Amino acid sequence: MNIFGWMNDQLLRMQWLSDLVTTVVQAVGLDPTSRIGGSIHFFVYDVAKIFILLSVLIFAISYVQSYFPPERTRRILGGRQGIGANILGALLGTITPFCSCSSIPLFIGFTAAGLPLGVTFSFLISSPLVDMASVILLASIFSWPIALAYVGVGLLVAIIGGTIIGKLGMEGQVADFVRNVPVSDADEVLTRNERISFARDQVMDIVHKVWPYILIGVGIGAAIHNWVPAATISALLGQDKWWAVPVATVVGIPMYADIFGTLPIAEALVGKGVGLGTVLAFMMAVTALSLPSLIMLKRVVKMPLLVTFTGIVTVGILTIGFIFNAITHLFI
């Protein structure tokens, strides 16, 4: 346990990096416990830690992902029915791209290939909401129980949401052109060097896409952490406020980011006493129900299916938020 604790502190939480940033902040004549010094420490430490972890994790996950191209994933899901297929679809969503907009092309391909609609929606919900990188990053900022709880509830939303959509028989609510998209059966076999090149390119591509959101998220987190009084945050989003979860969900929907950009904000909110369920609801709304992704999804599904999808995921997020607010004391 001592070795695990040391590894968790030094490799995930990067305590060495925090100490280094503290030394640098003090060297330039600032007090890390002051508002300005604390803000600079929060910003530099979180940005550096997130980019280091992000690069390492994306490389490792992308290397694994190279063994699961869309054609192979489609074959794994093809022919399966029932709750087992939804579970498999949700699990496969954890090793695919990291934002909802990039998951929609795969959703189109799976639908065109004739996969059950409910299974494709389990995949579509899970892909941006839960990924293996999020487990490590959540653990680095919060704790392993919170990280595993987030992944568990995220998969649960994906499985239940996909199952309900499958039972509703809404196959006719998919845009007509999706059914006519050509589907390739080719399954490219990559060499080791090609997989390494693929993983490296994924790191560069994803970091290029998310760096502005990380900087913005860390900036907002630093402001909340060091400048906004805890009493103000508690008055708006305190654990005893029934409206905290709905407000966090509504605020998250217009934003376009991924879990990496929302983590610093979530870290600061929890530090100010906001309930764990409220923070989870915010993170899930941003990643699964962002307005840009809903606009893109509207291009491939008809309005009744879009409303159904949005409603199911929203109810799931609200339910999870209220439940986890009631049991926050078990995690923090």
UniProtKB/TrEMBL annotation:
InterPro entries: DUF318, UPF0718_permease
Record's keyword annotation contains DNA-binding: no
Pfam family, one: ArsP_1
Transmembrane residue ranges: 42-64, 85-108, 114-139, 146-165, 210-230, 242-263, 275-297, 304-327
Membrane topology term: Multi-pass membrane protein
One Gene Ontology CC term in the entry: plasma membrane
PANTHER family associated with the record: PERMEASE RV2963-RELATED
Sequence similarity: Belongs to the UPF0718 family.
Protein name: Putative permease
Species of the source: Pacificibacter marinus
